[in-house]
Amino acid sequence: MILPADASPLIISVATTCAATAATFFLGMIAARMMYRVRGGFRAWIDGILTLPLVLPPTVVGFFLLLIFGRRSLIGRGLEHVGVTIAFSWPATVIAATVIAFPLMYRTTLGAFDQVNPTLLEAARTLGASEWVVFRRVLLPLAGPGVIAGTVLAFARSLGEFGATLMLAGNIPGRTQTMPIAIFSAVEGGDMNAALLWVVLIVVVSLAIIRLLNVEKRSRIMARAEPDLSRSEFSGQFPVAVVSSRENGSAVKLDVDLERTLENFTLRIALGARNGAVGLLGPSGSGKSMTLRMIAGVSTPDRGRIVLNGRVLFDSAAGRNIPAASRRIGVVFQDYALFPHLTVADNVGFGLARMTKDERRARIWNQLESMGIAELAHRYPRQISGGQRQRVAIARCMAMEPDALLLDEPFAALDPHLRRRTEEQLRATLAGFNGPVVFVTHDMEEAFRFCPELQVLDSGRVIASGPKQELFERPRTVAAARLTGCKNIVAACRVGNDCVEVAAWQCRLQAAPEVPEALTHVGFRSHQLAFQRPADTKNTFPCWLVTTSEAPHEMTLYLRLHSAPSSGQPPHLQADVSKEVWRDLSKRPQPWHITLDPTRLLLLEE
């Protein structure tokens, strides 16, 4: 291509665009990072101001810039006293291009930041990462494609800037005349060939930038498909020697007493945890995960106190709130929160930055071997199964040797078979862990298997707490009975010290313990219903089968008491029986007889 005789517009444009893109990159990143943390009504106003140059005509933006930097402005007069003139100079072209291109960089980067899963940032903080490390190692790499796209857009917008530049910098050949202004001047002077040449130059430069962007994008895709192990700090062979995990010592204690107002209720939680797992059992939305977030330090309570092994982590009265990065509390999130841009080994070693390289490698290898995933060291999270991801998440937490461990429904994403296997592996892993474990779940069987102590939450309140056997055998409230799996709950009223009346079942039931004055309901677990021959036994009634539901190893029978069901009548009771019991029952004529053992009757309050 033959360049024009005067190539200064090309030189000025390239210099202006590069300088403006660099300024826009840093200013846009800073603004996006600050706005990413802003919440509330002010965010929309600030965002509108920062985005305003994108929607205003460039000449209007140039006019405002002239008011700010012109020779008659306060800033302009102040700069002239030190021998600096902005208006109608090359720096003015950079300022105009920067202001016009800034909103594209800012908005694209902010959008990329907003697309990053915030749980990944919270996970990094719980692993001891400072805010700068979180930004540099997690947020920025994951938002990288958006940041690159914003930079390219800013470059293209700076290259084509015309109106604001003309207003602030003017059309001075050799000083402020960029290629867009040169096109305008050539057309105004009737030299269409020169204008066409400048247009072609701008198109060529723009296409080159787009091509570079596509090449970079394709290289990132190839890098994701084929990991570059040389870039990993933990590439090559791991050492054979391993370091021991946290040695057993005195028991670590966790005491929590917190309150926080949520959208639908006020969460109030008090728990004390020692060695072993304390389970938080409750339905979705009851406040379980928020409790873990407050203990970990990624959410702040309104009031309360958290003490871990004598160290006060949070005290609203004293104004003390230790950051998550300094609490030494490991968290296994429900979705595992593995960093997708890091290998398994790099994920496990994320919280070990203060160690030497050899110490890190040894600690990582120790955890990978203990969880049975050493062969996955150089894979990425997307290349492994859900069960393997869960083990990586546990290994990552255990590598930092936390003082306490929080598990947020760690088996929820696994199929039943894999869930049981992974649960056994976790139990073995934690056998030597000398610290409290808080285990969140909505699965009563999982809670019963894993946790010696339980707390039952409902709408932000602890409605039951204590040893698991006691809670399952004698829940005191309707909500606690439901959450512990009782399927037969019905309204009842007290008619004596050992007798209740159940209108819905049209009967009176004998109760072994004394019936409380506050009784409102009774319950009976479906697997404890006993079928027997007619006999003069307390709480024995004739029943008829309404319908059945079959599972692989048991049958669920829906029964109606006292008389055969008419069309449309609902059942009174649900009974879960083995296939052997069902085969025997199905051969008997109806009515059958069913007994509700008085000692197993649950006496409940609303």
| Main sheet summary | 6 strands, mixed
Q: What's the name of the CATH homologous superfamily of the largest domain?
A: P-loop containing nucleotide triphosphate hydrolases
CATH topology (level 3) name of the largest domain: Rossmann fold
Estimate percent helicity: 40-55%
Mean pLDDT score, rounded?
85
The first-level CATH class of the largest domain is given as Alpha Beta
Provide a descriptive summary of the structure in words.
The chain is α+β, with helices and mostly antiparallel strands and 606 residues long. The protein folds into 3 domains: 8-226, MetI-like (MetI-like fold, Orthogonal Bundle); 254-473, P-loop containing nucleotide triphosphate hydrolases (Rossmann fold, 3-Layer(aba) Sandwich); 486-604, no CATH class. The protein has 20 helices and 22 strands. The strands form 5 sheets. It has a 6-stranded mixed beta sheet with strand order 7-8-9-3-10-11, sandwiched between helices. Strands 2-1-4-5-6 form a 5-stranded antiparallel beta sheet, with helices on one face. A 5-stranded antiparallel beta sheet has the order 17-21-18-19-20. Strand 1 and strand 2 (266-273) form a beta hairpin. Helix 8 runs antiparallel to helix 11 (192-225) and helix 15 packs parallel to helix 16. The model is unreliable at 225-231 and 235-248 (pLDDT under 50).
